[in-house]
Design brief:
The protein is of the alpha/beta class and 277 residues long. It has eleven helices and seven strands. The model has no long low-confidence stretch (mean pLDDT 89). Bound molecules: adenosine-5'-diphosphate and magnesium ion.
């Protein structure tokens, strides 16, 4: 379940997202926005991007603090800089660093994952950060990664200036049926499964797609369950029935957790009311 780039499957969509990022960063476009629903592979792409940014200084903020000060501290720290405690001192430190890097002919990137959590004030602060620029190009490239509600947030009146300056945008969609099949085969191979050792029938892969709608995170959860069952039953061919059973198990588990939770809540209410059970 971890976004490990070792398992990276470059679907056309993931490739396009990475190409948008490389274009925006290398051409110094300033702001780049990548959106996608939960589990489509945004964090995986962040990690892969970091691997690819060879001669570029980068800061990756995975769980952004909601406040301007907190976010700024995280950026300064991730670049490995030391600074005074006030916001002004931090901005000055960052500016000095960026100018220095510019003179050394280098580019700098800040990637903020889960950006939909940033407050309006923090987003506006990020815009001000990028005000430091030479006549031709931005000294810092800022990548916002986030769930689709980030786009709605950026429509806010107070963020009009920021929104207008985001020129590179990409929305990551889930995989289609064929990509889902290829994704499963790819991950099996990287995990060390020799070719032909284990097969998913077309019907099985189709069921995985229908149930997960091509969201990689959900595919992982379902296939993990299916593979565990295949291992226990010593089966080398995964068929539709096995997938259906795994779906039932997962749904059953979810509803039993739900029911237990509901039961305990009811118990709490009875206890508070002094009912003897
Ligand atoms: N292109 C991909 N290649 C390999 N695994 C992926 C890919 N996209 C997503 N995943 C897997 O799916 C899960 C969810 O991906 P993640 O990057 O955390 O999604 P998001 O950040 O959009 O919620 C992770 O376990 C990751 O390993
Ligand atoms: Mg993520």
């Amino acid at each position: 379940m971890t976004p490990n780039p070792r398992f990276l499957f470059l679907s056309k969509k993931h490739e396009e997202a990475l190409a948008s990022l490389s274009y925006g960063i290398n051409k110094r476009k300033g702001f780049i926005l990548i959106t996608g629903e939960i589990g489509t592979g945004k964090t995986t792409i962040c990690r892969e991007l970091l691997n690819r940014l060879k001669d570029i200084d980068s800061a990756l903020i995975l769980n952004p603090s909601l406040t301007e000060g907190g976010l700024l501290t995280a950026i300064v720290d991730d670049f490995g800089l030391t600074s005074g405690r006030s916001i002004k001192e931090k901005i000055d430190t960052l500016n000095r660093f960026l100018l220095e890097r510019r003179e050394a002919g280098r580019n700098a990137v800040v990637i903020i994952d889960e950006s939909q959590h940033l407050s309006i004030k923090a987003l506006e602060m990020v815009r001000l950060l990028s005000n430091l620029e030479t006549e031709r190009e931005k000294l810092i490239q800022i990548v916002f990664m986030g769930q689709p509600e980030l786009r709605e947030k950026l429509e806010n009146k107070e963020l009009k200036q920021l929104n207008q300056r985001i020129v590179v945008r990409y929305h990551l969609n889930p995989l289609d049926c064929e990509e889902t099949f290829d994704y499963i085969l790819h991950r099996l191979k990287v995990a060390g499964c020799p070719e032909g050792f284990l097969t998913f029938t077309n019907g099985a892969a189709d069921r995985v797609f229908r149930h997960t709608k091509g969201y990689p995170r959900l595919i992982n959860v379902l296939c993990d369950r299916v593979l565990t069952a295949a291992y226990v039953e010593n089966k080398k061919v995964v068929d539709k029935e096995m997938v259906l059973k795994a779906i039932k198990d997962i749904e059953g588990y979810k509803s039993s957790v739900h029911n237990t939770w509901g039961f305990h809540r009811l118990l709490g209410i009875f206890r508070r009311r002094g009912t003897v059970l």
